[in-house]
Automatic annotation (TrEMBL):
This is Uncharacterized protein. It comes from Durusdinium trenchii.
Length: 112
């Protein structure tokens, strides 16, 4: 079975903790087909989806900054991702829309 199409290197995702059910912003650092794991880097305090993250083309730069600041990494096995208990998910649509709206206003000076 293949990984979800949205699960790519440098993707901004949300990790859901099994124990606390807390949602944390993450970036996919790499996908290892040989080890069958996805390496994610945790952002701190919602860094990735904050209003100052205005350009989705800069995902790599956000990842580099998170990595350079020594953010926590985690290996998520393919088996877990492909199961019903997948801890990775796409970010909330409203969070993405808020960032897009901020970006649009900054570029065009008007609301959507």
């Amino acid at each position: 079975m293949a990984l979800p199409k949205w699960l790519t290197a440098h993707a901004k995702l949300v990790y859901v903790s099994r124990s606390s059910k807390k949602e944390m912003d993450v970036v996919v650092k790499r996908i290892s087909n040989s080890q069958k794991t996805v390496c994610i880097v945790f952002a701190k305090d919602g860094d990735l989806f904050a209003a100052n993250s205005t350009d989705f083309t800069c995902v790599s730069m956000v990842f580099v900054l998170a990595w350079a600041q020594g953010k926590t990494e985690m290996q998520v096995p393919f088996d877990q991702i492909l199961s019903k208990s997948n801890p990775l998910k796409l970010p909330d649509v409203s969070a993405v829309e808020a960032v897009f709206s901020f970006f649009f206003v900054a570029r065009h000076g008007q609301n959507l």
